[in-house]
Amino acid sequence: MLAEPFQFASAVQQARHSGGLAAPRLFSLRRHGNQETLCPADSEDIRDTRNGDPEAYRRLIERHQSAVGKLLWRFTRDRNDHEELVQQVFVEVYMSLDNYAGKAPFEHWLARIATRVGYRFWNRHKRTRTVAVPDEQWNQLVQTQNDSMDSSEAAELVHRLLAQLPPRDRLILTLRYLEQCDIAQTAYRLGWTQTRVRVQAHRAIQKLKKIVADNHIELEL
């Protein structure tokens, strides 16, 4: 048993900016009063892409691929799978761009599509790609204080812990803890009600606590 409880939130804090991918500037919004608007570059490139300019869409990809890549690293640690998922997101964005009405910031709409792509990936592979926590890593966790883990160790541990959950539970905790989405943002990403987000998050946390308790580790959230 740990001298102190394993603090999941502490490990998550170390893991957020780890994983071998640079932390990007996630938003290209400009604020005017209390309103968020598209940056001029995005607005122009979206318009020109809709008018058939391939260079405009290339600029959109270059501007946002770092943020999309960082988000999808939450869904797979396999480089080949990761690259395919990023490409799939931008294919879906291109095919759906005419449906973007500008009611939400472009980055939020893009993240919603990326989240959907990552979730489908988990569902396709949930029976064949369970990311187990090896016994030696459980033992290391029992013997290691949280503040002695570096960010890469924390990232891998959090990834493996969440991978023990069903895809839906894993998704809700990934958004709430790793992506730091609030209830409203999470609901938008998933197309759920805020009540459903709260209920699902509570259930997912209880399942995660049971997993670590079964391995004789005390979890503090």
| Quaternary assembly | single chain
Mean pLDDT: 79
The major beta sheet can be summarized as: 2 strands, parallel
How are helices and strands ordered from N to C? EHEEHHHHHHHHHE
**Poorly predicted runs:** 1-6, 19-35
Shape: elongated
Structural class, please?
Answer: mainly alpha
Strand runs, count: 4
Number of helices: 10
The CATH fourth-level homologous superfamily of the largest domain: Winged helix-like DNA-binding domain superfamily/Winged helix DNA-binding domain
Structure in words:
By secondary structure, this protein is mostly helical. The protein has 2 domains: 1-20 and 133-221, Winged helix-like DNA-binding domain superfamily/Winged helix DNA-binding domain (Arc Repressor Mutant, subunit A); 22-72 and 78-130, RNA polymerase sigma factor, region 2, helix turn helix motif (Rna Polymerase Sigma Factor, Chain: A), CATH 1.10.1740.10. Helix content is 62%, strand content 5%. The chain has 10 helices and 4 strands, in the order βαββαααααααααβ. The chain has helices at residues 8-15, 40-50, 54-72, 79-96, 106-125, 135-143, 151-162, 167-178, 183-190, 194-214, and strands spanning 6-7, 29-32, 35-38, 219-220. Strands 1-4 form a two-stranded parallel ribbon. A hairpin with a 2-residue loop joins β2 and β3. α8 (167-178) crosses α10. The longest helix has 21 residues, at 194-214.
